[in-house]
């Protein structure tokens, strides 16, 4: 009989605890973290006020501690105020605006179902791709960046494609457009469609009324007018949306974004125990709570009014510099992100590089279909001040003087 070879406990083994590293500590990790000061006057993230930074720097507690649940309950109330909704199914995603986009689509749409997307900038394009990836049958209504869809056009497309969900961007940040929303929720109800609206770039800066406007699913991001660091994203579902997503036949493609788990994690499902699903971004939630507290103290209407006033001041200053605003009609301009048509003969990249180098200021170019069309200036929340508009205007004036009209 041959026995298997015995491994003697005395046999020498490789000692992995010492000097066997082949990759030394990287030199960069032995240097301190360096973060420059920047004026974040692009489409986001925006500068975070010290009060919110301080909230995010508070000591960590466990994400399932009762105090954390209280903080999450407060966040829910803050979001209900910011969205103007009484929806119980209101949470903040552990993730950026894209997490909310995916959460909305993955939970309310099943493979093969029809989805209608209004595309007038990059955000419709993104949502169409997200829906396509999870196997939806996607139909798009397409306009040039900044284009506005009439309610008649929307109703015609709803009747034609019979979608389970219609997507519209309220604050189209790639185009600088604040799209009208009134009446669309009613049309969606008439056609048995859920109405999904993106307010990542507009919440707190331009009016939106989730309940009154019959919006079924609404989401935003933390890093724009809310002024929290990037990484959390409020989202809310009304009863109609819950009915659809909790009676589905298939499981959503994402475990992380599954609302049946997230609703329990946020204490929305009526069950006595809130169970572990994933580890929420504790510091991010502290900061988000503080940003929602600032919005509640300021008042939504005051915040909308203030953004409009500062935006109008900026628009006048831009026109005084001889610049043309990309969205012609004032009432359709997004107060948080202004788009400037690239001045003739200039190289927009050169202008932005000049402003970054000489003014430590971020402004950005277009995104997706608006690339090569616009320069974007964002003054949101904490950054939304006339003195910041003056700084932005001075930087642009300086760039226009110094970036000669030769290399367009
Ligand atoms: N929608 C809109 C209107 C946006 O402006 C953005 C961010 N620029 C997003 C969605 C995506 O958000 P995030 O980058 O936080 O994922």
Could you explain how this protein is built, in words?
The protein is globular and about 90 Å long. With about 400 residues, it is of the alpha/beta class. Helix 1 packs antiparallel against helix 9 and helix 10 packs parallel to helix 12. It folds into two domains: about 250 residues, 3-Layer(aba) Sandwich (Aspartate Aminotransferase, domain 2), CATH 3.40.640.10; about 100 residues, Alpha-Beta Complex (Aspartate Aminotransferase, domain 1). The protein is built from twelve helices and 14 strands. It has a seven-stranded mixed β-sheet, with helices on both faces. It has a three-stranded antiparallel β-sheet with strand order 11-14-13, with helices on one face. The longest helix is centred in the last third of the chain and has 21 residues. Bound molecules: 4'-deoxy-4'-aminopyridoxal-5'-phosphate. 4'-deoxy-4'-aminopyridoxal-5'-phosphate binds next to helix 3. InterPro entries: Aminotrans_V_dom, Aminotrans_V_PyrdxlP_BS, PyrdxlP-dep_Trfase, PyrdxlP-dep_Trfase_major, PyrdxlP-dep_Trfase_small, SP_NH2Trfase/AEP_transaminase. Its EC number is 2.6.1.44, 2.6.1.51. Keywords: Aminotransferase, Pyridoxal phosphate, Transferase. It catalyses: glyoxylate + L-alanine = glycine + pyruvate; L-serine + pyruvate = 3-hydroxypyruvate + L-alanine. Its cofactor is pyridoxal 5'-phosphate.
């Amino acid at each position: 009989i041959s026995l298997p070879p015995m491994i003697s406990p005395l046999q020498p083994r490789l000692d992995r605890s010492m000097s066997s590293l082949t990759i030394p500590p990287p030199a960069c990790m032995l240097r301190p973290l360096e973060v420059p000061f920047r004026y974040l006057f692009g489409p986001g993230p925006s500068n975070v006020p010290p009060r919110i930074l301080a909230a995010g720097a508070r000591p960590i507690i466990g994400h399932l501690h009762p105090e954390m649940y209280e903080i999450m309950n407060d966040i829910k109330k803050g979001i209900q105020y910011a969205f103007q909704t009484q929806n119980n199914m209101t949470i903040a995603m552990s993730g950026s605006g894209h997490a909310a986009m995916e959460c909305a689509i993955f939970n309310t749409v099943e493979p093969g179902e029809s989805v209608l997307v209004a595309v007038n900038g990059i955000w419709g394009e993104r949502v169409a791709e997200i829906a396509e990836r999870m196997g939806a049958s996607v139909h798009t209504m397409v306009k040039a960046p900044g284009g506005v869809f009439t309610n008649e056009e929307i109703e015609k497309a709803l009747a034609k494609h019979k979608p389970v969900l219609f997507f519209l961007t309220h604050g189209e940040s790639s185009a600088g457009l604040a799209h009208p929303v009134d009446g669309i929720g009613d049309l969606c109800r008439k056609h048995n469609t859920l109405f999904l609206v993106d307010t990542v770039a507009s919440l707190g800066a331009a009016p939106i009324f989730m309940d009154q406007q019959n919006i079924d699913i609404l989401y935003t991001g933390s890093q724009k007018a809310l002024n929290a660091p990037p990484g959390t994203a409020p989202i809310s579902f009304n009863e109609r949306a819950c009915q659809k997503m909790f009676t589905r036949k298939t499981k959503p493609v994402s475990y992380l974004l599954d609302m049946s788990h997230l609703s329990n994690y946020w204490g929305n499902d009526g069950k006595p125990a809130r169970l572990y699903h994933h580890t929420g971004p504790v510091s991010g939630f502290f900061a988000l709570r503080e940003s929602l507290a600032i919005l509640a103290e300021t008042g939504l209407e005051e915040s909308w009014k203030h953004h409009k006033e500062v935006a109008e001041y900026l628009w006048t200053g831009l026109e005084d510099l001889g610049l043309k605003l990309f969205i012609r009609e004032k009432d359709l301009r997004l107060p948080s992100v202004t788009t400037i048509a690239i001045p003739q003969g200039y190289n927009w990249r050169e202008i932005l590089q000049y402003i970054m180098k000489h003014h430590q200021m971020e402004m950005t170019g277009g995104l997706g279909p608006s690339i090569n069309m616009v320069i974007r200036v964002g003054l949101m929340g904490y950054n939304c001040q006339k003195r910041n508009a003056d700084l932005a205007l001075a930087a642009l004036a300086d760039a226009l003087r110094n970036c000669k009209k030769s290399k367009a």
